[in-house]
UniProtKB/TrEMBL annotation, chain A:
Keywords: ATP-binding, Nucleotide-binding, Transport. The keyword Nucleotide-binding applies. InterPro entries: AAA+_ATPase, ABC_transporter-like_ATP-bd, ABC_transporter-like_CS, ABC_transporter_ATP-bind, P-loop_NTPase. Pfam families: ABC_tran. Residues 9-230 form the ABC transporter domain. It comes from the Bacteria. The keyword Metal-binding does not apply. GO terms for molecular function: ATP binding; ATP hydrolysis activity. This is ABC-type nitrate/sulfonate/bicarbonate transport system, ATPase component.
TrEMBL record, chain B:
It is a multi-pass membrane protein. GO terms for cellular component: plasma membrane. Keywords: Cell membrane, Membrane, Transmembrane, Transmembrane helix, Transport. Signal peptide: none annotated. Belongs to the binding-protein-dependent transport system permease family. InterPro entries: MetI-like (IPR000515), MetI-like_sf (IPR035906). Coiled coil: none annotated. The chain crosses the membrane at residues 20-39, 75-94, 106-130, 136-158, 234-256. Residues 70-254 form the ABC transmembrane type-1 domain. Gene3D superfamilies: MetI-like. This is Hydroxymethylpyrimidine ABC transporter, transmembrane component. It comes from the Bacteria. It is found in: Cell membrane.
Length: 245, 267
């Protein structure tokens, strides 16, 4: 077996059956290469989050082979999952704190990342003082501060309003273009999947039913979302999604 | 232009104070009516009018021993509460560590809560004597359950599964998870337990005064003496003072709760 570069995720023939007998995934083959952003789209309950939890090591596969070649894996949850008793800055510092990174080093890095997500002025605020979009930016900052090789996103923008969602998509685009990490991103939104990713994997009933390559390099301008070419790719994904469901 | 509602409404504390004063006036009126109109002069000693009861506040022969006794009861309640806090928190933290520790310890917490204190007083008397230590033990027994149950609930149920996943992904140790996630998440629940336990510790101290009268007398002991002597003015004053004391202890912990947790949750 050849050694993989950091930031590689590979699932080969992976199936997952839970203790109650529910089969969530069957024969999943999936690869995320370093520096590649892959999106999973599919209806609720098709197994997207299970793939993410497998990749994070939170659960183990029932069958098949799972390889994660990454020194650091970060996870962005559907809910920002901020600790209410910590300020934005201390939430971003949390992972460094748990890994015993020296205080000065983790603070400098946390401030840099907060600046990168546009929240330099909100560092001292508690989560309750932040809007939904700002909370999600803190959550993204917390994931990126660890300088991950692999980042996993579990439908992070699902609960946000459309304007905030679009601005966060643009932000994530920019961050992804600057940082070299592999990413697996879950979403229900076809437009979000096409705008963000290099490849869109269409899921249905525990299987990957189709794959669509997205041709544009990163970073992508926000206006791309309103072009005819974009609509054509999104239309193709939507049609495949309908077939898979 | 500012909103008319904002400019006309009273501050929250003033509204609350007004309702408290209104309620007290209402009670005073009903009390006066019962005392002066309903009761015959021969039976008026059962409920003397409020003016007569308030008159005892200026009587040093009654008030000096009453305040000294209240001071002793306060000390017993505070020591009992402090012990209940330490033991209750440690108990809850141990139970939160594993299911089998919970299975071992939880029944004893329930037993402490459900056994009537009357059934335990002979044992407490034999083991701890009939003075102040026994009163403290009663205060601890009565106050401890809300601390155990609320802290345990906070430690186990307050952090979301996703927060636990976050700590698992960062390979946090059990200690880090307890100190940086479970304990801070449990603080609002702990304060709920503290507020209840604070009130209960006062009740426990007074109950202890009733049963264990060796040594210097507490307010519960005086209540008993006043009852035996049918000294209704002093009895009602003592009841009023203990009620005020209970409310004060509850309010202190409620204010502490708002100060600590309010910053996080905007209460």
């Amino acid at each position: 077996m050849t050694p993989e570069s950091p930031g590689t995720l590979r699932l080969t023939g992976v199936s997952k059956t839970f203790e109650d007998g529910t089969t969530a995934l069957t024969g999943i083959d999936l690869t995320v290469a370093p520096g590649e952003l892959v999106t999973l789209v599919g209806p609720s309950g098709c197994g997207k989050t299970t793939i993410l939890r497998l990749a994070a090591g939170l659960i183990a596969p029932s069958e098949g082979e799972l390889t994660v070649t990454a020194d650091t894996t970060s996870f962005v949850f559907q809910d920002p999952t901020l600790l209410e008793w910590r300020t934005a800055l201390r939430n971003v510092e949390l992972v460094g704190e748990l890994r015993h990174v020296p205080r000065a080093e983790r603070r400098t890095r946390a401030l840099e990342v907060l600046d990168a997500v546009g929240l330099a002025d909100a560092a001292a605020k508690h989560p309750r003082q932040l809007s939904g979009g700002m909370r999600m930016r803190v959550s993204i900052a917390r994931a990126l501060v660890a300088q991950p090789d692999l980042a996993l996103f579990d439908e992070p923008f699902g609960a946000l309003d459309e304007i905030t969602r679009l601005s966060l998509q643009t932000l994530l685009q920019d961050l992804f273009a600057r940082a070299e990490f592999g990413a697996l991103f879950i979403t229900h939104s076809v437009n979000e999947a096409v705008y963000l990713s290099d490849r869109v994997l269409v899921m249905g009933q525990g299987r990957i039913a189709a794959e669509v390559a997205v041709p544009w390099p990163h970073p992508r301008p926000p206006e791309l979302r309103y072009s005819a070419e974009f609509a054509a790719v999104a239309g193709r994904v939507s049609a495949l999604l309908e077939e898979a469901s | 232009m500012t909103g008319p509602t904002a400019s006309r409404s009273l501050p929250g504390w003033l509204t609350q104070a007004t309702s408290v004063v209104a309620a007290l006036l209402g009670i005073g009126l009903v009390w006066t009516f019962v005392s002066l109109v309903v009761l015959t002069p021969e039976r008026r000693f059962l409920l003397p009018p409020p003016t007569q009861v308030l008159g005892t506040l200026g009587n040093p022969t009654i008030m000096t021993p009453m305040l000294a006794a209240l001071g002793r009861t306060t000390l017993v309640a505070l020591v009992g509460l402090a012990i209940a806090v330490v033991v209750g928190l440690v108990w809850a933290v141990l139970m939160a560590q594993s299911r089998w520790v919970e299975r071992i310890l939880y029944p004893y917490a329930v037993i402490l809560q459900t056994i009537p204190i009357l059934a335990l007083t002979p044992l407490i008397g034999i083991w701890f004597g009939y003075g102040i230590p026994a009163r403290v033990v009663v205060a601890v027994i009565i106050a401890i359950f809300p601390l155990i149950s609320n802290t345990f609930f906070g430690l186990t149920a307050a952090p979301s599964p996703a927060s636990h996943d976050l700590f698992t992904l960062a390979r946090a140790s059990r200690w880090q998870r307890l100190v940086k996630l479970q304990a801070p998440a449990a603080v609002p629940s702990i304060f709920t337990g503290l507020r209840t336990a604070a009130g209960l510790s006062v009740i426990g101290a007074i109950v202890g005064d009733f049963f264990f009268q060796q040594g210097e007398v507490g307010i519960g002991g005086l209540l008993r003496v006043y009852t035996l002597r049918l000294n209704m003015e002093a009895l009602l004053t003592a009841v009023g003072l203990t009620a005020l004391f209970g409310v004060l202890v509850f309010s202190v912990f409620a204010a502490l709760d708002r100060f600590v947790v309010g910053r996080w949750y905007g209460r």
